[in-house]
Amino acid sequence: MIVVIVILGILLAIMVPQLIKYIDKAKAVQCRADVSYIMKEYQIEALEKDPGNAEAACALLESIVLEHNGKLKKKGEIFNGGIYSDVCTSKGLYTCTFDSTYKTVTVTCGEHDEGQIEVKKLADVLNNMDFTNIPGCPHPNLNEYFKGPRTSIDSEAISVDGYGDYGSFAKVIEAKLKEQGINTDGRSWRMYKKGDTYNLFLTDSQKITLNMDTQKVACTQYDITNNKVIHGTITVSKDKQGVEYYPILLGESFVPDKE
Ligand SMILES: [Zn+2]
After folding, report:
1. Quick check: 221 and 254 in contact, CB under 8 A?
2. Is the pTM of this model over 0.85?
3. 198-247 pLDDT, tens per residue?
4. Fewer CB within 10 Å, N- or C-terminus of the chain?
5. How many other CB atoms are found less than 10 A from the CB of residue 87?
6. Residues with beta carbon < 5 A to ion ligand 1?
7. Domain assignments of the chain as residue spans, ordered by start
């Protein structure tokens, strides 16, 4: 009897955290689906009703958020669409921002989109990144880097070139991002050149290691070309520099979460 109770206790201790993790994940997926629906619905109705000013845009947005049982917590003004509660089941607050023509709205959840970067800001920072003050850095900017045979930059890559105190080109980029208020500490990333701009895959909350080879991790894709932030999972793989391996994120393995 005691043995059975002990075993049950151990089983529970293992299963409860797993269950909580599973519920949290389900809540995050639901929240992102709601956010995505609100943004799409606003775009469709704004095209039809052409709000054109802050007051009309806020009223239209409010009518859509109310359908999702949301409550207006703070009224919006100018391009700020206000703050809403009660849609996210993890108690995240939704912050809404209109574009300058009130045709689209960007909604971010304080609970689930923490650490999310604004795509337009990221595009701007990457396009204007300048490396000419980094001693020994062979690339003056990202565009020049991608003119070579290289197709990507990996956060964990091992470098053979000199990059001053930074150790690798990726570390230089991380420092430059940080200067502009974009913090990638504790996360891993892979960047691709895409058309005239860049495409970034950034893990949600962890640094990848070689031990994680072939594992899937939560990741956010910043599709700068299409001005989209997409949540999903990505597979960890590895690459090598000389005889030394380092972990990478396989961009082509990215699978968006189901909405
Ligand atoms: Zn949320």
Report:
1. yes
2. no
3. 999 999 888 999 999 999 999 999 998 888 888 899 999 999 988 899 99
4. N
5. 23
6. 31, 88, 92, 109, 111-112
7. 2-109, 119-256
